[in-house]
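subagent[fold] <- orchestrator: predict structure for attached chain, return C-alpha cells only, no commentary.
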Amino acid sequence: CLPVAASVDVWLAESGRASERASSGLIAAGRKAPICGEQQPAALSLGPRSPEREAPSPEPGARGTVPGPRSASCHRQQQQQTEGRLAMAADWAEIRRLAADFQRAQFASTVQRLSDRNCVEIVAKLIADKQLDVIYTLDGKEYITPAQIAKEIRDELYVHGGRINVVDLQHILNVDLTHIESKANDIVKSNRDIQLVLGQLIDETYLNQMAEEVNDRLQEAGHVTMAELCKLYDLPCDFLTEELSRRIGRIINGQMDTYDRGVIFTDAFIAQHKARIRGLFSAITRPTPVSSLISQYKFQEHLLYSFLEEFISNGRLNGAVIGGRQDKAVYVPDIYSRTQNNWVDSFYKQNSYLEFDTLSRLGIPDPINYIKKRYKSASMTTLKAVCVGHTIVDQVEASVEEAIRSGMWVDIQPLLPSSFSVEDASILLQQLMRTTNKQSDSWIFDDTIVVSEQFINSCAAIFDPMMQHKAEQEMQNNHAHVLTEEDLKQATIIAESMISVKKDKREDRKKKTSDGSGSTRAGGGGNAREIRTKKHKKRGKRDEDSDEEMPITGVCED
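subagent[fold] -> orchestrator:
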C-alpha cells in the first residue's frame, strides 16, 4: 500500500479533492504496482535544463581580433542574445520530451489495475492508520482535506462579498457542518479581519462596505438609529455599535450621542437641532412641559436636554428646567419666574399665609418645597392646605391667652381667613396649645373653641342652687333610709346563710333523685314511680330557679 498512499498524497496535495473513480484511475494510469526485482522509473523533471550543458564550448585554436572597448560591449550583447536563444531552444526541447513521456505514460498498459472498491478500502485503511487526513463529503463520493476546506471557505466568503452563513457553506461545500464550524473557528482565530457573529462569517471588507452604506443613509437623513440598522442588516446591536463607532470619522462622517450610543448624527443635523431648540425656548414666556415640545417638534430627547443645560449655563437662555430629565420636567422662563415670585411675595406680605392650591394654579408643581426654598429664614407653620406666617399665629395665640387669663372662651375660626378649613384651624390650635403649655388651664371644644377652666367652674356654680333644690324635692317625695355599716354586715351574713341553705337543698334533691331512679328497676309500679320522680325533678328545678332570682336588697321600707 505504500506506493498507493504516495499516489493519493500526491493527488490530494495537488487538488485537495479526490473522487473514488479519480483515485482508482490515478493508481491505474499514473503508477504501476512494483514487481520484485523491477527497477523503479526515474522521476520526470519539469524544470528547465541548464544552459551550460547545451552551450558550445569555444574552440581552443580559434583565431580572432582583440576587441576594443566598443567592440567588446557589442560582442557581449551578441553573446548574451545567442545564449538566450540557445536556452529557449533547450527549454522547448525539454517540454517536447516531457509531453512525449506523458503521452507514453497515458497509453502504456498497466500490469495490475485496482477497482473502485479496492481504492475505497485502501483509503479507509490509510485513514484508520492515520496515514491520511481526509474527510468524507455528505454524499460519500469524494474526499477532501482540512486545508482544502479552509481554502474553499475563504473563497466562498470572498465570492459572497465578505459575509456568509455557516449553514449555507454546508450545502455549497457538501461537507458536514461540524467540520465547517471547526475550520471556521480556526480561521477566526488565525485571522483578525474575520469574525464569527451569530453563525455568520464576516470580514473587514463587508464591514467597511456596510459603514459606507450607513454613511450614505446618514448624510441623507441627518441621523440614524441602531435599532433601524440592526433590523436592516440582521446583526446584534452591541456588535453593530462597536464596529460603527470604530469607523466614525474614518468612513462615517458623523458623531455618536454621548448619552445614547444608539443614535448617530451628522454635524449639520446637530447644528440645525441646536438652532431650533435655541429659537423655540427663547420664545417661551410661560411654564411649558418639555415632553410636549419633544412630541410636537420631533426633537431628540438627549440632545434637547444637553443643549438646554448648555444654553442655561452660559446664559443664552434665561430660565430653568424643573424636574430634571423626566417626563414631568417643565421649563420655566426667567420672566415668568420673576413675575411669579413677585406675586407670591406680595400676597404673603399682605395676608401672611399662602394656599397650596393657589400656588399650583400659578404653575408651581411642588408648593411645599417651593415655600421652604423661597422663605428659608421666615418662621412659617405648614398646615394641610395652607402655610401660615407668624402674624396670624401671633394673633391667634394672643386671643387664646386673653381668653384663658380673663376666664372666658374664644372661637379661633372667625380670627382666621375664610380660606382656612376647620381641619387647618384645628391643627393650628393643637400646635399652639402644645407650644404654649396651656392644655391644663383650658379645654378645647368643637375643634376650634378654647374654654378656660375658670369659665367652666363659674358655669357649674350657676347650677348649684338648682341642684340643691332638686335634691330636697327628691328626699321629700321618696322616704328611704340609708343603710349603715352594721346593716351591710347583717345583709352579708343573711346572704351567706341563704346560699348554704340552697346548697343543702340541692344535695337533698340529688339524693332523692338517685333513690328514685334505683326503685324503678323493681317490678310493676315502675312507670308511676318514674313519673313522680320526673315531676319532682321539674318542681325542684323551678324552686332552684326561683331561689336564684330572689333579689337581695339592702334598703328596707317602713
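orchestrator: received. Logging for downstream: Residues 69-107 form the longest helix (39 residues). Residues 55 and 469 are 169 Å apart (CA to CA).
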